[in-house]
Amino acid sequence: MNDTSKGTSSKFKDLTTFLSSVKGDFANITSPPFFLAPLSVTEIASCWTERPSVFVAATEESDPRKRALLIVKWILISLKQQYYIGRDVTAGIKKPLNAFLGERFIGRWTDEKATSRVLTEQVSHHPPITACYMWDNEHGIRGEGYTRVEMTFNGNINIKQFGHALVYIDRYDENYLIPMPDAKVKGFLSGHLYPELCGTYHIVSSTGFVTELNFSGKGFFSGQKNYFDAKMYCRDDDKKTAIYSIRGQWSEKFIITDHNNGETEKWDPHSCAKASLQIANEVDQDPRETRRAWKSTLEALRKGDMQATVKEKTKIEEAQRAKRREEASEGTTWTPTFFSQKEGPYTSFMNLASAVGWELQAEKTKGVWKVDRENVEKLST
Fold it and tell me: Which pLDDT score, from 0 to 100, does residue 26 have?
């Protein structure tokens, strides 16, 4: 049966009561079913690859400044899908399903210019850490990263992320260091939840350009929802003279100004069409693949059947607990298929992070997670 007996205000009251009762990090705690999105954590990385032409655009630009700007555009366009969890801005926000240990998502997107792919794997459950690899071999671009999420509640939901991504372009032998911004979920008083990114972050290129992004959003009395401003400057310029500046709403529209000639360009993330997701047929998917593993739970969520959601979700959670008990009794330890913990110095990160005093915080993420490209290339997605 559908859960229509409770009104929105009652659900918000229940949600607030639940969140207030949780002490500390609740990222891995089971949330009320009405607060769940029909989407797993492992699918969120789709935001980076669901627009193949945008993903590969920098590979076809010879000017290093414009290449760096195209990487920034790509990241900004991905934010709405990433932080609104695939929902429309007017629909508010819900919490994605907690991925189980070893869960994986493998997807592909094709448009008129390119084919992009992504693979994610849940490499840790306590704490929850998701690793990701994205690529387009034809255009010579690939990226990898990982993130751990912590969630707390103090009237807003505070989302803190530990991790980063590194993107590499073969043709120009260059790297880009990409941040994972923190966020707050606001709107508990109005009954309409929405995310606000908060803080200052940097996108750093090995060609010597740094983009500083400042997320301010909407305050209690002033400001615009999802507002940000940014500027790109040369790494060796102590004055941080703007080459490009960007301002607007990351979930709506923003304006880019070229300070070399004064020209402006308006960008609307909604104008960049998403390609259709392609995944293997269910019978060909590994049992750990997201869409196959969560099929019944996702169907129940889409129908609004909260009783069935709880029932199906509990089946998966109990099966995972049984696997951990079995491993403990046998003295074995689960290991990821596509990612491993890096040993030795992490120079590719340090060389870029040193430009802005960015700390690795590997102790928060069980070390540094690197992709096993040989295992990825074996996949026929």
Answer: 83
